[in-house]
Known about the structure:
Largest sheet of chain A: none
Radius of gyration of chain A: 24 Å
Largest interface: A-B, 41 and 51 residues
Distance between the termini of chain A: 12 Å
Radius of gyration of chain B: 24 Å
Helix content of chain A: over 70%
Oligomer: heterodimer
Amino acid sequence: xxxxxxxxxxxxxxxxxxxxxxxxxxxxxxxxxxxxxxxxxxxxxxxxxxxxxxxxxxxxxxxxxxxxxxxxxxxxxxxxxxxxxxxxxxxxxxxxxxxxxxxxxxxxxxxxxxxxxxxxxxxxxxxxxxxxxxxxxxxxxxxxxxxxxxxxxxxxxxxxxxxxxxxxxxxxxxxxxxxxxxxxxxxxxxxxxxxxxxxxxxxxxxxxxxxxxxxxxxxxxxxxxxxxxxxxxxxxxxxxxxxxxxxxxxxxxxxxxxxxxxxxxxxxxxxxxxxxxxxxxxxxxxxxxxxxxxxxxxxxxxxxxxxxxxxx
Amino acid sequence: xxxxxxxxxxxxxxxxxxxxxxxxxxxxxxxxxxxxxxxxxxxxxxxxxxxxxxxxxxxxxxxxxxxxxxxxxxxxxxxxxxxxxxxxxxxxxxxxxxxxxxxxxxxxxxxxxxxxxxxxxxxxxxxxxxxxxxxxxxxxxxxxxxxxxxxxxxxxxxxxxxxxxxxxxxxxxxxxxxxxxxxxxxxxxxxxxxxxxxxxxxxxxxxxxxxxxxxxxxxxxxxxxxxxxxxxxxxxxxxxxxxxxxxxxxxxxxxxxxxxxxxxxxxxxxxxxxxxxxxxxxxxxxxxxxxxxxxxxxxxxxxxxxxxxxxxxxxxxxx
Lengths: 312, 319
């Protein structure tokens, strides 16, 4: 009699493990989350527009045409001209670059700071954790927008300072998120095993803990970019953001034909949020179906079970 | 519960003291600064210069930083005196006391609006997970938070005044004089303030609902043959709601930040507006005072949230 082994598809499992993490993620995103894919497309489009802005712009951003001030869209100036006769479309394209620079730059700094503070504090535990958390709590008690306003009223306004300021403010707040992710992992067996084999704390942090909190970090990063862009727009509105005249979407909102900038900002943040949301759906281990080295998607699980039932 | 509450309570004074220190330092470490601004102001007003030493003495800047801090703190704790405004030379405490209720009301209404919008949608989206309704509702909510709320408020005011010839009530109606009038005034800014948070609430509600609906006791309820409405509303919702309520506490700082913008746009005489004016005029005592008060409110709010959370969730008792 043929006795089939109880574990039917260990081969399938290893087969899935061999596919890279990114590839599975990407595939699942396209198959299961159309809105997330839409969001990703939007981000990619604006990103490319920003990177290749020099080649796409029909007019230089500073070219002033005082004969054609505040014109509606025409065949020459595709989106109209602003109050100094500059082409709105070119400024919008360059604005993609500026806004995305602020968003991604600020979030990179924020993520680095969050990991440094949150992961170390969460991993090293007890006293360091307690003390660090007090300071993080204090920082989070002060409304972030107010911190931004106060700091920006002191320091000179340029792209670099904005990125640094938004980055640091968001970063210290995000430390709590990273810390809770680290604490969630700390109860796993392999973490105690790390200590048992004599792994140094630094090595443990960077080689073992960090890769396993990647989902939380990725979600924090993606969703934070949208928030950073909005903070920048808010600061611009109050006059505490980038210097006036910079072709940033936030500043363009309140000049003539600001509607295009409003559309651009809303679309970008919408795309980022949809993408981040779908990413969170795919990566959050608490919800059914995580994507990872050792996970099986819900559909595959169902198929496995059917195969098992059939084989018995 | 007792031990948890006690521990939680003990952290409050520590956090408050640390916050006051950081707020103080944040505003004091300014390059260039107060004296130059006052000098410029005096020059503009009287056309004369001012004795720098006298100003420094007047503002109390001639003592080391920690002494300044000590003066400030003792002033607050012992006399309830938050300082005097540099610009208007008015004491700050009465100013603040007058304006805080408005910001409070705005924030409260904002949270209420956010809740009313997001909770039912979150529950429904969780009940119909991954169906077209779920996706559409999620998209709409995310659209709500993607468009910057201050922008929509701005556009709304513009179009309302130009097209419908409507302007917001200019003179403020206090709540106790005329509740309906007051609410009518505040509801529109509150809507704009609240929509900022709906995304977070809805997402959290949906996630928590999804998690709760997979619990064993819900499965028992289904097995008993209870209708969907009873299972969701009577059993699942209450448990799923707890983390969302905790999230409200975390959202208070962001709400305050949003209030600064909204109060500015709708010209409401609240603390946010005062803060903005103070920052514009570099009125440092006012800036420190408001930031401190707002931070203390946030800390106390978090305390209340945590204690409520500990009280509502029986699992916390056994810590």
